[in-house]
Structures are given as C-alpha cells and as structure tokens.
Write a structure and sequence with these properties.
Radius of gyration of chain C: 18 Å
Number of domains of chain C: 1
CATH architecture of chain C: 3-Layer(aba) Sandwich
CATH class of chain C: Alpha Beta
Helix content of chain B: 25-40%
Strand order of the largest sheet of chain B: 4-3-7-9-12-14-17-20-22-24
Chains: A alpha/beta, B alpha/beta, C alpha/beta
Distance between the termini of chain B: 6 Å
Largest sheet of chain B: 10 strands, mixed
Helix content of chain C: 25-40%
Number of domains of chain B: 1
Number of helices of chain B: 13
Order of helices and strands of chain C: EEEHEEHEEHHEHEHEHEEHH
Strand order of the largest sheet of chain C: 6-9-10-3-11-12
Largest sheet of chain C: 6 strands, mixed
Number of strands of chain B: 24
Oligomer: heterotrimer
Number of strands of chain C: 12
Shape of chain C: globular
Chain lengths: ~450, ~475, ~260
C-alpha cells in the first residue's frame, strides 16, 4: 500500500515544475516514466516501512525551488579553502552536480571516459546501464531524481585498465534560497577494470538550505573492482538523501566506505547492492556520528541473487547530543543463491541521554545452503575497559574519548587510501574530543 | 540425496496424527457476525450488561480496524460471515466428577494423550479442558481453593468473580490493539481465568488443552492471569485440533498481569492441524498474547513451541513497567509442508533496571516459511535496561525460507542491547556422523533439531518438554532431503 | 571380513580412487599410509558411505555382504565403524543420549531388545574405565567445545561402546599430543581381538609404534602401490614417499 503525503508544497508544485522542465530536458522518456512512478509513490511517510524512523516531510515544507542558480566562478584558492583537496588523486569538481572542467584534473582518456550525464547519451555503456538498476523503482526519491535530475558524472573505466590514482569527486553546492538539487551519476567498471572513487562534499556560500537528492548507479562488471568512498564530512544547512545502487557481475569486487561526519540536519543513505552473478565479493563499511539535532539514517541492502557470493558488512555509529541514528541492514538471499556467505554487524554507542538509536538488521533467506549472520549491539563505553585505563592513570574524559575513538577507528582502519583514512580519523577525533569535553 | 528424497516422498504424505472427529451433539450458533450474534453469545453465557457492552464496543472497533499489511506472508481472505461464533457441547456443562463426562469426549482427550483420569491421579496437573469453547472438566479445584487460587473457565469467572474480571479485562491488550483482538473482544467464547493471591506460590502447573473440533467454528478463547504481589504461577497451554479441509480461524487473546514481586511462567505447545503437503486446510493461528510486569521485581516468561497451524502469527510480549522487572521469551517454531510462522516478541522497557531475554529458534523444512519478528523498545526512563536476543534459523531443504526482522529502538543512553542472529543449513556432516554410528537420517535430523532447540525446550516443565520433543519429530518427519 | 576389489570412486566427477584391492581378515590390523591427497581419507569415506563419493567401479564385500549397497547407518549397524578425522560437534545433543540411541539402533538391527537403562549405565562405566575416558564429558553436548584430543578420545570411546567388527581410523593421530596419542592407542590395543579388525589410516609412522600393524599398505594416486609388514612403515619414515613416487611413475602408463 502506498501512502502519499500530498499536503506539502513541494509535492504540489512538482507537476508544474516537471512540465516546465521536460521540454528541453535530456532523456525525456525515462523522465516521464519515472515521474509517473513518483506520482504513484509520493514522498515517503513514517508509514512507509523503510522510512518508519525518518520523517522527511518536515524537510520538504518550506518553499523549495528546483531552478538551479548560475554556478559562481570559483578560483583555485577558493577550492583549496574548502579543505577537501587530497594528494595523488584525479580530481573532478562539481557545482550543483555540474562538472567544472577548469578546476578538475581528469584521468587519462585512454583509461577512463568522463562525460557530463547530460552529454553521455552516445556512450554504449550509458545506453546499456542508465536507469536500469534493480530496485530503482522502489525508491521514491530515486524516481524523482530520474524525472528531474540536472546533471552529474558518467564515468567508465575501460576493460582491463587499472586506474592507479583514485578519482576524487568534489561535490559543491550553491544556493540563493531553499533549493532541491538532484545530481545523477552512472559509473561503470568494464570487465577486469580497477577503479577507486572518493566522494567529498561541501557547501559554497549558501542562503537557505540545500536538499540534495542524489543517485549513483554503479555497475561493476565481470572481474572488475570498484572501491567507493563516501566522505560525508561537511554541509551545514544541507540535507542529503543519497541513493547508491550497485550491480555486481561475476567475480567482481565492490567495496563501499561511508563516513557520515557532517553537520547536515538530515542524512539518509540508501545503499543497495545487487549481486547478479556468481562469485562476487562485497564489503560495506560505515561509520556515522549523529550529533546536535541530526538524523543520520543508513539503509543498506545486499541482494544475493546467485550462488557462491560473499558479502560482509560492518557499520558503527556514535550518538551524541540529541542525535538520532537509524540503521537498517537487509540481507536478501534468493532461492538460487546457494553457498551464500553473508555477514552483517551493527554496533552503536549512545553517549547522551537525549540521543536515540533505531536499528533493524534483517535477514530474508530463501536458499538453504547458506551461512548468514547478523549482530547488533547498543551500549556505552565498556566499564571494564574504562576501569583498566583509569587504573593506568588515565583520566576519565581522556579514557572515554580513547575508547570511543577506538570504536570508530576499527572502521577507519579498513580504509585503504592513507590520505582518506587520515581525514576521517581526524574529523572523527575532532568531533568526539569536542563531545567528550562537553 | 536420492535415498533421502525417497524418504521425503514417502513421509511427506504422513497423516495428521490427531486427525479424527468426535461425534457429539453440538449447540451451534448460525454462521455470521453481527450484533445479534454477539447478543446471542452473551445471553447464552448469561453475562452481565457491562460485558455485553464491552463486547459490542469490540465489535464496533473490529468494523473500523483494517487488516495489517506488514506481515511477511500473504494474508488469506477470511470470511468472517462464514464462521459460526458459538459452539458448545449440548450436554450439561458442569461436572462434579469425571464420571459424568461424556465418555466419547474423554476418549478424545485420551487419543490426544491427556487422559484426565490418569492425570488426576498421577501427574499433579490440574486440567481445565476447553472443548470447543466450553469448559467441561476442572480438576484439582478443591486443593487450589484452599490456597485461595482461582482457576476456572472465563465464563465461570465472569459469574463468580466479576470484580476481578472487570478490573483487569482489556488492560494489557486494548480492545483496539488489532483487528483480531477486537474480534475476540466481540465474540470470545470461553477460556481460562487464573488469580493467584498475594504471597501464594501455586503448587502445581495449571494446564489447559484447547481443541478445535466442530466444523467451521472459530475459536476465540480469552485467557486472563493475574499474579498478585509475591505470587508465582506456571501455566501450560496445549493445543491440538483434528484434521479439517477448510481453514479454521483461531484468534485468542491472552493477558497476563504480574504485580510486585510476582512471577508468571506461560508455556505453550501448539500443534494445531498444519494443513496437508499441498497447503490445503489447516488452522490460522492469529493470537494476541501480552503480559505486563506491572509491579517492581516482577517477571513474566513466555515459552512457546509452535509446530502446528497453517499460519502462526503471534508475538507474545512483555511490557516491563515495574522497576527491576524481567521479561523472557523462549521460542521454537517449526514450519514444514507449506506452513508459515511469523512470530516473535515485543519487549517494551519502561521501568528502570528492566531486563529482557529473547531466545528464538526457527526451523524451516520442505516449503515452510519461518519469520522472526521482534521489537525491543527502550523508553527514555528505562535506565540501565538490558536486552539480550539470540535468534537462530535452521534450514532443512532448499525450498524453505527463514527471515529475521528485529526492530530495536533505544531512547536511553544507559541501555545495553545485544542482538545476534544466525542462519544455516542443517549440517550434512552432523547427519553423516550420526549415520555412521548406526542412526538413520530421519532420527539424526530429529536429534540435531532437538539439540538445537534444547535451550528453549529446557524452559518447559518436564512432561511438556517430552511432548514438545515428540511434536518436533512428528512435524519434521519426511523433511529429510 | 573386508574384501575390496578394484574399487574406483569419484567426487564431482574427479576420480579419487583408481582400483583399490584390499583383503582384511578378522584379527588383523592394516595400516594405510601415503602422502597427502593420495586418497587415504577418501577410502575411509567410501567405506563408510559418505554421499559425495560415487563408486564408479569395483566391489566391497563385508562379511560376505555387499557393503556398497547399504546406507551409512546400515553399514554402521553391520559393524563398520569410522573414527573420524574431524569428529563433528552437535550442540544440544548429549553424548549419553546419542550413545544410547546408537547402541539400541544397532541392537535392534540384530534383533535384540533395547538395553535397559541400568545395564547401559553399567556398560558405560565399565568402558569409561577401560578407555580412561573422562566421565564429565559424557553429560556434555556431543563434541561441543571439546578439545581436538577430547574429540578423538570420544570417538575411540564410542568404538568401545559400539563394539564394531571393523574399525576404520581416519588419521586419528592427527592433532593429538603425545599423551593423548598414548591413551588413544592404548584404548585401541585393548579393543583388539581375534574377532575384529582395524584399518588404520595415517600419515606418520608414529601411531604405528603404539598400534603395531600386521600389514602396511602405501596408497598413492588412488591405488595401493606397495604392501608389506610394519618394516615398510619404518622405511617410509626414513625415506619419505618420494622414492616410491619415482618408482611408480616409471610403471604408470602415460595419461
């Protein structure tokens, strides 16, 4: 059953906005179909099972526009000032989803094809994979994105190429009022290709709040490897609803690292991985911090559709202040997916009397020759460990902070790129130290 | 594989062991649900006006409420108008001694393995047998009376202890809780009532066997157990129903109330007709069971062994309101053939230092679908709340399913919650090991399953544990493959 | 007692045993040695009836009956016992209940009534003493949480309880320390009689110092390539298997 929340201005204004946009837009057929589907689905309410703990309706109320303002011209110094630059990477800078070539350092075209999404129609891989992800039509916001996305990045790593340096995508958002920005990306690793993608995000001078509704479709084809880092590290006055839809072909590897260490009010990550052929490997790591009045919601799902695949998921969160954390992890093992190994672990620390955590690890299993498990914990700093540290002369505040950091660093230690690891550890450390001293 | 496949073929068609029908004259209400039906039931049971009003209110809620949509199975269409809501043996209802009971009826119980006479002498179990709605025999009443314990049919309690019934009825499961609970409020037939006075430790297990017999009669019993301060009671509920082709609805409500320092242990062995191997027939077991630890240091423990029914859909829960109270849920659910079980618990922590423990063991065989669905909720005032959940699934055969949906909600930063779940196939190595010691596959699977379920079976009183083990074996017969 | 003729077996289509011939008489102890992957454990598995192993050719007679025609449990009831290389853990199933079930199944097979509890307990105590088996392990779940040595000792204890005619010991010595090895071997020696037989599969000669075999066979590439007396084991210990491999390669037709 679909519950449509209609008493909000954005929903009401969308048909008109859509009619205005569709005229000159790319891919009109896909957009029309998606908009129809979105109108059936509406915005999710708390009665929608997947949005039970995350009420987005209040975030959609105050007159949100979808017309993007002109991108401000940005100097290299301004870019540097965001603090997001990383060493030894290819760099793709986007403002409100649009590639800024003058600020970017592209990887060699012999290995990687980079296009704006609005200009990718001729690419074979685009035609093959765009808007084809399984479960795309289940996501309310993804449908809205397909209908009204502005631009984004088409990235294709060519077959059997190894892209040595990570590709660093810097998403910058700029607004002159309350704004809905809808970037759309399609990344394809062709057979045997190896690629690493890092996403960072920051707001430029903004007035009003930006609601980012982004969709990444990623296809990791046979024997290809994609490591994907989502560094959700900044963005006051921002709200993020991210859909990451991954398809894996045979013998492929996909690693996802999602770090939510942000000041945004709302972060909702939907990460769906569909294992479409045999002998794939998937690792999903996440660390989230919910502070202030933040709501940080990670919904992940792994669909084991074929035999002999392995997935492994570890998410940890720390809830501070009046923060609310939500975790929902679903492992779905379809009838044919014999010899599946699927593991999932979610650990939470709640460090403030006003913080909340809602967690729901799910297993849905329709094959018998499987090994699946999940574990969830909610707790605090271990009293035993605390006592041990104190007995060695370490003060209470320091000891607590050490233990919480250790909790977080189990995840950051999984990061394979030193500069990325350093950044997330510094940020986590900074927030947690501040919290410990409060 | 093929030899085991043969066993499967041979045994999948095994007949339901308790599938026979007792020929007794019945007093049956015409099928259909309306205010008249409810007034008829209330009149037949000679109920006071307030209870009739309460039933009618339940009926109004039933009409308003809609069917849930969140369950993990296809909810079959239930024709509420096609069901008869009252069926009672026509003969006299009360018996002074077992000699007066219809011999046919006694034989029925004997076939079920609960010979009342024997039990009266040997087992120390007082049995309040519910035969299609009406209590026909209550033993050990005298001994319980001396302790001030009230153990009677719900109907008798309404007549003899209206003040207690009125005080507690509907206080744990609100009439509006769900559509089936509302239906039960409107048409409940009979059930058991237990009151344990202050400081009394009930010296024996109290037990009821429920049984659905007449065709097309839904069973809507209602159980209310109140353990007053410092008291203790262990209550056993066993269920078997004879074979039917039509699906039959069972929508019971059980309410438990534990006051300060009281403890209630409620055990269920459910073995209703599961339907045949094609999914034809079988009971729909849609039951609302909930207890409240109202007093401090109180404890409620649910143990269930669910082997029967075409669909089992229930979540015995505990509201941990009193400080330092404890809630427990131990469950074994087996689904074979085309059975579906969507079951689990709700532990709602409200008071301080409350603890809950959940051990769930699901076993899915053949085409059975087994879902654990649970809620652990820690309220903002539930300081130092603790929960531990272990939730395992065992799969036997490649066409069955095991699903886990635990909801964990914490609004208190001193809470500690731990949830673990595993799913795995029955170990081929284990079966072979037992084969190599001379034990055939069928029995090997039984041993492994019983071992797997042991932590739960151990919670049952001895005589129940033995029966439960037998039922596990019966349910799983023919599932090796 | 056991007569294996030209036994061929395969797992998932890969030939593992390629023509084994072996004759074991009552009262004899045969050791089967060979390098890793030669098919030693596969032979044990085929004899016990593990499902993954498909016999493609040849025959196995046990006490004049066709062993290959029997299900694993019937083989066990007829008196074939496999001491596992890796005894399996079965949580929640008590050791004692398991043993009682097994003993009575075997008795039923031979038309004997189930053993009364008292008689069973007496037998249990007697065998515990004989095998130096820790009584505390009896009430625990079958092998659950047992150390490697405890599991092996439990298997040998089961052998004492079930009194098989033919015991196949699949690398029982692997993972045992010297004390456990001594206890296990002593147990086996106590069970040796003129009426039963042992097939001992081992990688090392060490076990054979404790359980002295009448015959030693070398299994290589799915076939018995050399047979001899206990001296052969010593020779193997000294020279390894390589000299044999070289010999065999010369004899073997080009594949």
């Amino acid at each position: 059953m679909t519950t449509i929340a209609t008493n909000i201005s954005l929903y009401d204004s969308l048909p008109e906005l859509f009619a205005e946009q569709i005229g000159g837009a790319s891919y009109p057929e896909a957009r029309k179909a998606a908009f129809e589907r979105f109108q059936q689905l509406g915005f999710p309410t708390v009665k929608t099972e997947d949005w039970k703990y995350t009420n987005v309706i209040p975030y959609l109320k105050n007159g949100i526009g979808i017309q993007l303002p002109a991108a401000p011209s940005l100097s290299a110094a301004q870019l540097e000032a965001t603090g997001l630059l990383l060493p030894d990477v290819y760099r793709l800078v986007l403002v409100n989803g649009e590639l800024q070539p003058q600020l970017s350092e592209l990887p060699p075209a012999s290995k990687v094809t980079i296009r704006k999404m609005s200009e990718a129609a001729e690419e074979a891989a685009f035609q093959q994979y765009f808007a084809k992800s399984k479960k795309l039509d289940e996501h309310h916001f993804a449908q809205l994105n397909t209908a009204l996305f502005t631009d984004g990045l088409f990235i294709e790593a060519k077959a059997k190429t190894q892209v040595e340096q990570p590709i660093h995508i810097i998403h910058l958002y700029h607004s002159t009022g309350n704004l809905l920005v809808q970037p759309r990306h399609l990344w394809v690793a062709q057979p045997g290709a190896e690629m690493q993608i890092i996403e960072s995000v920051a707001g430029l001078e903004q007035s009003g709040t930006v609601l980012v509704n982004s969709v990444v479709e990623a296809v990791v084809t046979e024997r290809a490897q994609l490591s994907h880092y989502q560094l959700q590290t900044s963005g006051q006055h921002s709200r993020f609803i991210n859909q990451t839809l991954v398809q894996q072909h045979g013998k492929s590897l996909y690693n996802n690292y999602t770090f939510t260490l942000t000041e945004a009010d709302l972060v909702r990550n939907n990460l769906n991985v569909s294992l479409d052929d045999e002998r794939t490997e998937t690792h999903l790591y996440g660390f989230y911090l919910a502070m202030g009045n933040q709501l940080v919601d990670n919904h992940t799902s792994v669909d084991h559709r074929m035999p002999n695949c392995e997935s492994n998921e570890l998410y940890r969160g720390v809830m501070l202040d009046k923060g609310t954390g939500v975790f929902n992890g679903k492992i779905f093992v379809h009838e044919d997916a014999q010899k599946t190994n699927a593991f999932q672990q979610n650990n939470n620390m709640v460090l403030s009397p006003d913080a909340n955590i809602y967690t729901k690890p799910q297993l849905e299993i329709f094959a018998d020759d499987v090994k699946c498990s999940h574990g969830t914990t909610i707790g605090q700093v271990s009293e035993d460990a605390l006592f041990y540290l104190k007995a060695r002369g370490i003060g209470d505040v320091t000891a607590r902070s050490m233990l919480v950091k250790a909790f977080a660093f189990d995840i950051t230690a999984q990061v394979k790129i030193p500069a990325v690891r350093k950044r997330v550890e510094q940020l986590a450390s900074q927030y947690l130290t501040a919290a410990a001293n409060n | 594989m093929s030899a085991e496949q043969d066993i499967l073929q041979e045994l999948a068609g095994r007949e339901y062991e308790f599938g026979f029908e007792t020929q007794i004259e019945m007093d049956i209400a015409p099928p259909g649900l309306n205010e008249e039906t409810i007034r008829f039931i209330s009149m037949k049971k000679n109920e006071p006006e307030w209870l009739l009003e309460w039933r009618l209110k339940g009926y109004q809620l039933f009409k308003k409420l809609s069917m849930p949509t969140w369950q993990n199975f296809e909810l079959p269409e239930v024709d509420f108008q096609g069901v008869s809501y009252y069926a009672a043996p026509k003969n006299k209802v009360k018996y002074e001694s077992l000699d007066e009971v219809d011999p046919e009826l006694l034989r029925t119980f004997e076939k079920l393995g609960i010979p009342l006479e024997e039990q009266k002498m040997l087992s120390g179990v007082a049995v309040d047998a519910v035969f299609d709605s009406i209590s026909v025999a209550t033993t050990f009443k005298k001994q319980l009376n001396e302790l001030g314990i009230i153990f009677c049919s719900f109907g008798e309690a309404v007549q003899d202890h209206p003040e207690l019934v009125k005080k507690y009825l509907g206080t744990v499961v609100p009439q509006s809780d769900n559509i089936y609970a509302a239906l039960n409020c409107a048409v409940f037939s009979d059930g058991s009532f237990v009151y344990i006075p202050k400081g009394v430790r009930c010296p024996m297990e109290l037990s009821t066997y429920f049984r659905i017999n007449a065709k097309n009669t839904g069973q809507f019993e209602r159980t209310l157990i109140i353990a007053d301060e410092g008291s203790y009671v262990s209550y056993l509920e066993g269920c078997t129903a004879p074979m039917r082709d039509e699906n039959q609805l069972h929508a019971a409500v059980v309410e438990l109330i534990a006051l300060d320092n009281a403890e209630i242990k409620y055990s269920t062995v459910q073995n209703w007709y599961p339907g045949d191997k094609d999914g034809k027939g079988g009971i729909y077991n849609f039951v609302t069971k909930r207890g409240i630890c109202k007093g401090h240091h109180s404890k409620i423990s649910w143990t269930q062994v669910e082997t029967g029914s075409a669909i089992t859909w229930k979540y015995p829960g505990v509201i941990l309101q009193g400080d330092n109270s404890i809630g427990e849920f131990y469950s074994v659910a087996v689904t074979s053939k085309k059975q579906v079980a969507d079951t689990g618990t709700k532990m709602v922590h409200i008071g301080k230092n409350t603890k809950s423990r959940i051990i769930s063991k699901g076993i899915s065989a053949v085409h059975g679908q087994n879902t654990y669905r649970g809620l652990v909720k820690i309220g903002p005032n539930a300081s130092n709340a603790r929960n531990f959940t272990q939730c395992d699934s065992l799969l036997i055969g490649d066409r069955c399913g095991a699903h886990t949906f635990p909801y964990i909600e914490s609004k208190n930063n001193t809470a500690m919650v731990e949830h673990e779940a595993t799913t795995s196939k029955i170990g081929e190595d284990q079966v072979f090991y037992l084969n190599q010691r001379g034990i055939d596959s069928e029995q090997a699977v039984n041993m492994i399953v019983n071992g797997y379920a042991k932590e739960v079976l151990n919670q049952l009183p001895m005589e129940f544990a033995v029966e439960a083990q037998k039922l596990l074996s019966i349910t799983l017969e023919g599932s090796v493959g | 007692m056991l007569n294996i003729k030209n036994l061929h077996a395969a797992v998932e289509g890969n030939a593992i045993l390629k023509g084994i011939n072996l004759n074991v008489k009552a009262g004899e102890v045969h050791a089967i040695m060979g390098p890793n992957g030669s098919g030693k454990s596969s032979l044990a598995s085929v004899l016990a009836g593990r499902e993954a192993y498909e016999v493609t050719e040849g025959s196995v007679e046990f006490e004049g009956k066709d062993l290959l025609d029997m299900s694993p449990e019937v083989r066990a009831r007829e008196g074939v016992f496999l001491a596992f290389q890796y005894p399996v853990e079965i949580p929640g199933v008590s050791n004692i209940n398991f043993l009682k079930t097994a003993v009575n199944e075997i008795r039923a097979h031979h038309g004997q009534p189930p053993m009364q509890a008292k008689a069973f307990l007496d037998m249990l105590k007697q065998k515990q003493k004989l095998m130096e088996f820790d009584a505390n392990l009896m009430n625990r779940s079958l092998n659950e949480g047992f150390s490697g040595g405890e599991k092996k000792r439990n298997d040998i204890f089961q052998m004492a309880m079930l009194e098989p005619k033919l015991a196949i010991m699949d690398e029982t010595d692997s993972g045992l320390d010297i004390d456990a090895l001594r206890v296990v071997s002593a147990g086996v020696n106590k069970l040796r009689s003129k009426d039963n037989a042992f097939v001992i599969i081992t990688h090392y000669q060490r076990l054979l110092e404790y359980i002295v075999p009448d015959y030693v066979h070398v299994l290589y590439n799915g076939r018995i390539v050399k047979s001899g007396t206990k001296e052969l084991a010593l020779e193997l210990e000294e020279k390894g298997y390589d000299w044999l491999k070289a010999d065999i390669r010369l004899e073997e037709p080009v594949q």
